[in-house]
Amino acid sequence: MYKIVFNIPSHVTFSQQKIEAMLDPEKFEKVLFVNKPEQLEEVIEDTDVLVTYPCEASIIRKGKNLKWLQAITVGVDAFPIKELHEKGVIITNGKGVHRIHMAEYAIASMIMMARNIHSMIRNQMSSTWDRQIEQNEIFGATVGILGLGSIGQEIAKKASLMGMRVIGIKNNPEEIPYVDNTFGMTEIEALLKESDYVINLLPETVKTRKIINAKNLSVMKKNACLINMGRGGTIDEEALIKALKERWIRGFVADVFEEEPLPQSSPLWKLENVVITPHICGESTKYMEKLMPILQNNLKVFQGGNGNMMNVVDLEKGY
To answer: Is 231 a catalytic residue?
Structure first.
């Protein structure tokens, strides 16, 4: 008999009844729902299955019986991978859950920067009426997508249907619907040179850490905008601040940062060509509803031993 724990933050909407209906009472003896680290720490010792947001390594070390961890998130770099790997825990993630709402964030960010809505909001705060603010459009512009996974492909689809030219980066370049040209990871400079908007969706790995550096920022178009929805560590923040101050690029929209919360001392807060959101582009009121098919499939496989789990994380790659 197994014990399963759902560590789901209190602000996330979900149906406890729907979750419990997925569980075979002959396989699961206990089902617990917690929403605080201290609560999780109290019950982790004899937990077999954990469905959770990122948690501390100290908690995982106490999980003597842990066999499978279903991450609610897509990225697992915030999880104690080393400890999970040492225990032989299967890790699955929420890949695919974010596809629609994160693509909408990307499209909204490009339109906002094209119409300079961020500048008009600042003017509103100071009661300033300025009709000289430039109004552009994304139709006909080129968007470069760093990472053509499920989210990147959904952005490509939406951007293409809105009249944009779409190019992108993929580990193994191949023909992808709605993408006009696909580059390999070693061709990032070529993509940056062509793009009016660059959307970064890359995970943080040994290969991608600070991949957007001073050299790459310097080849971008002067009117280009960078949108970071991947991981903060993939951008050299010091070089980025210099690029923004000296107008190597036109603007920056970011939902993720190397240090979070972004320190109040960061120059990014004060720059007029920067829009900051607090790591929320992956959030949605429909989040758990979207996760349910993945969870249902993986629970079925875990309970019955037949079939394949969805979204098993490759610990060597980190995603």
So the answer is: yes
